[in-house]
Design brief:
With 217 residues, the protein is α/β, with parallel strands linked by helices. The protein contains 10 helices and 6 strands, in the order H-H-E-H-H-E-H-H-E-H-E-H-E-H-E-H.
Length: 217
Amino acid sequence: VRLNQPGLPPIGPAEFIPLMEDSGLIVELGAWVTREACRQARAWLDEGLDCGRIAVNLSAAEMRRGQTLARLSQALDDSGLPAARLELEITESGLMEHIDAVEPVLRQMREMGVRLAIDDFGTGYSSLGYLKRFQVETLKIDQSFIKRLPDDSDDAAIVSAVIQMARALGINTVAEGVETEEQAIFLASHGCDVLQGYLVSRPLPREDLPAFVNRAS
C-alpha cells in the first residue's frame, strides 16, 4: 500500500501505518486490503494464473481491536479464495509485545487453514519458542541482515544460522530486501527458499503482474 497524491512523492507504509494504528483507522485499512487481496487472488486463479499464495500484512493493533477473524472469514467467503492460498504476515515485535492478546486469534486462523509468516525476523525478541507454539510456516529474514551480504561476516553467520534452524524445523525462509546478484548467490547457496526485493522486481500494479509471472515461469 502506498499513499499517492498528485504532485507529491508517494508515502510508504512505514510512515503512515503507525499513525493509522494510533487512530484506529488501521482496522478499516486492513479489512480493505484483505478483501481486495483475496478478491484479486481469486480472479487470477480463475484466469489460469497460479501465483501460489498471496501474503497480507496483519497489524497486531488490528487483532487487539477485535473482529479480525470475522473480517478474515468474510473476505475468504466473499472471494471464494481457499484459505491455504492466504498467508498473513505479522512482525516479530508485534507478535511478542502483544502475545497474550493475539495468541488465540492466531490459533483460530491456523484452524481456518490460513498460513502464518513472521515478518522482520531477527529484529524483535527472537524468542524461538513461539515458532513451535504458533506453527509458523514462514520466516522473513529482515533486510537489515541482508543488505551487507555477503561481505559482513556477522550478518552472513546470522542469516546462515536462521536458514539452517528454519530448515530443521520445516519452516520456509524468505530473504527481504535482496538487491544484488551477490546477495542472491549467497542466499541460494545457503538454502534460502525465496528472495524478495528489487533484484526480483519493484512493486508492480496488479495489471502488470500476469506478464511478470509468465516471464518468470
